[in-house]
Amino acid sequence: MSNLDREPVPSECGGRGFVVAEPVRELLSPRRVRLGESTEVRRLLPNLGRRMVGAWCFVDHYGPDDIADEPGMQVPPHPHMGLQTVSWLHEGEVLHRDSTGSLRTIRPRQLGLMTSGRAISHSEESPRPHQRFLHGAQLWVALPDTHRHVEPHFEHHPELPVVTAPGLRATLILGEVDGARSPGTTYTPIVGADLALSRGADVRLPLDPDFEYAVLAMSGESRVDGVPVLPGSMLYLGCGRTELPLRAESDAGLMLLGGEPFAEELVMWWNFIGRSAEDIVQARQDWMEGRRFGEVQGYDGAPLPAPELPTVPLKPRGNRR
Fold it and tell me: pTM, whole model, 2 decimals?
């Protein structure tokens, strides 16, 4: 999914100087962003106070939206560089096309994982016809320097491992939880899991104390380590945890995001992640001049033009403002 802001703010993120080494409870509020004609998203990362959680560097939550009489998601071809995109649905379908020739329909709790590497372009749209409701999350994972120029590729994993406990069903998106491992390709120590809680569930999820974590609330009413977390908000949890208490006041859906704190400093602007201003300037120029990012075949519409570059300097810094 694209960052469709026409005046995107550069995000200078990464580095371990601002990672919280002990458990905390830091509630992050979203920023509302229009995405195409009929979709509004709640952007949790990058956030005013926190830029990354492990290698997770971008989190949008959208829906549930009634799109029965709407076009639904319509994101024209756009570029990516230096990252992976994770498409995750609770309701609806998204048709993915990219410049490597991939064409896949992603359905609820199936993993659509695109590794941009050196350069890729893709589009995302609700199929025609489509289901009434659309609800999901779009996330980015920053690639480390050693892998940020890998060949672009797309993975679709319709079957994923599941961990269960009384009142809990955890689907592995990336990484490992309680001995179960996702088939999705990763390039840094990372974890992502979809947590479905039944009303009244009171469980403790095992965690890696070397990881930092956050929990995104997708639906329902729940408490994460005693903190009420409403849909569309995210609770940052810091590091140093061996388990996470979860309680559901109603049937609820959460996403657990975590990973080893990302050591490298990054520059993220629009849909590009680089290590310097020169990386970003060159990527924008290549996209606008039709180089490097390839072409998405079959989408009915023109690709997105890149916004103008900001007047402020682009330089890598830590993962908080």
Answer: 0.92
